[in-house]
Design a protein that fits this description.
mainly beta; 11% helix
Length: 142
């Protein structure tokens, strides 16, 4: 009889993610956020931003500039997510002493009938996450 294989986690509705791949997948669901950035428990910035780029790159920074969010999950240790209203989700990213709390908000251009901003990813343009994420090759050798 073969030993049972280890099952991957299954998170429905809320959870905590530490894998870059899972963090990216959860964050792909948002377009605009209201955010609060805290360092050592003190709020250093808050506002609203549109998610422009989502990455897992150990050499890039997470930036919020001019209402644009360039979010690098490699800037954080883990992510909590949960629904906070019928049409809003909360995401909290935790780094070493820093916390980025985000609440998804509807994209204003969609609700006002204006031009919508381009999609972040389409199926044809989706990056190869294997090349973006540092994976532990030791697990694959078993």
């Amino acid at each position: 009889m073969e030993p049972r294989r280890t099952l991957a986690p299954c998170l429905i509705g809320r959870g905590t993610l530490s894998s870059y791949r899972d963090m990216l997948r959860a964050l792909e669901t948002i377009e605009s956020v209201e955010y609060t950035y805290s360092v050592d428990g003190e709020i250093t910035d808050q506002g609203r931003a549109a998610l422009v780029k989502l990455m897992a790159d150990p050499d890039s920074s997470t930036l919020i500039v001019n209402g644009c969010l360039f979010l690098n999950v490699a800037s954080f240790r883990y992510l909590d997510f949960e629904p906070i209203a019928d049409d809003a989700w909360g995401f909290t990213l935790y780094g070493d002493g820093a916390t980025l709390k985000m609440v998804s908000v509807p994209d204003e251009s969609d609700s006002e009938g204006g031009p919508s901003r381009p999609s972040l990813l389409t199926y044809d343009e989706a990056p190869d996450f294997e090349s973006l994420i540092l994976l532990d090759d030791d697990d694959e050798d078993d």
